[in-house]
Amino acid sequence: MIGKISGRLDWRGGDQVLIDVRGVGYIVHVNERTMAALPGVGEAVSLYTDLLVREDLLQLFGFPTMLEKEWHKLLMTVQGVGAKASMAILGALGAEGVARAISLGDARAVQAAPGVGPKLAQRVILELKAKAPGLMAMGGKLAVSAVADEGDAVIEPVAPAPKRVAKVDGAAQARAAASADALSALANLGYGAGDAAQAVATVAAEMPEADAAGLIRAALKLLAPK
């Protein structure tokens, strides 16, 4: 299993890139968001990967964080969602957006992904509603971006290249960590996973800059008996 690729970005295609790792080139399929965040050709790049194995096909799919990779794997457990649909959903919403859409039961948000119809979007919501909180609770630990470590010496001295890696969305990582901490705290207080996830997703959307403590306070008010 190839879980991570670190090397030099040699080529960009429509939905795939070629990464040179010590003279061996790997074709890695990526979504629109990941493609937009990658550095220029010739620069260092690192992606977490998931290998799709079929009888007549081997495909690598790349993700900037382990969190997005895990969402990809979870999405593909839904009947009718293959790698293409999963990548489209993540490309449209990102890991954070997928978590919010599932927690809030927002099938329309999922349907915004190219090629995803209303029936499939509704199935994603229904089948992952109970599974999403578990992954959301791990969000803070999994939201760290893949980084090409200079110590790995994956960039061969064929031609000088800047030591820049894929852009890191620190704000998204901070939001994922805050939501995960808030979800964990609510679970410790005895709230059900589904109710806690929906409350956190709601207040996180309304308060994108809030830290974990702020999310917890707001979620508790939302969960309080009327």
TrEMBL record:
Which parts of this chain are annotated as the region Domain I?
1-64
On subunit structure and binding partners, the annotation says: Homotetramer. Forms an RuvA(8)-RuvB(12)-Holliday junction (HJ) complex. HJ DNA is sandwiched between 2 RuvA tetramers; dsDNA enters through RuvA and exits via RuvB. An RuvB hexamer assembles on each DNA strand where it exits the tetramer. Each RuvB hexamer is contacted by two RuvA subunits (via domain III) on 2 adjacent RuvB subunits; this complex drives branch migration. In the full resolvosome a probable DNA-RuvA(4)-RuvB(12)-RuvC(2) complex forms which resolves the HJ.
Establish whether keyword DNA-binding is in the entry: yes
Name the gene behind this protein: ruvA
Taxonomic lineage is: Bacteria, Pseudomonadati, Pseudomonadota, Alphaproteobacteria, Rhodobacterales
Major location (coarse) = cytoplasm
Cited function: The RuvA-RuvB-RuvC complex processes Holliday junction (HJ) DNA during genetic recombination and DNA repair, while the RuvA-RuvB complex plays an important role in the rescue of blocked DNA replication forks via replication fork reversal (RFR). RuvA specifically binds to HJ cruciform DNA, conferring on it an open structure. The RuvB hexamer acts as an ATP-dependent pump, pulling dsDNA into and through the RuvAB complex. HJ branch migration allows RuvC to scan DNA until it finds its consensus sequence, where it cleaves and resolves the cruciform DNA.
Domains: what does the record tell us?
Has three domains with a flexible linker between the domains II and III and assumes an 'L' shape. Domain III is highly mobile and contacts RuvB.
Q: How is this protein named in the record?
A: Holliday junction branch migration complex subunit RuvA
The answer on whether this UniProt entry bears the keyword DNA-binding reads yes
Q: Which residue ranges does the record annotate as region Domain III? A: 174-226
UniProt domain Helix-hairpin-helix DNA-binding motif class: residue ranges: 73-92, 108-127
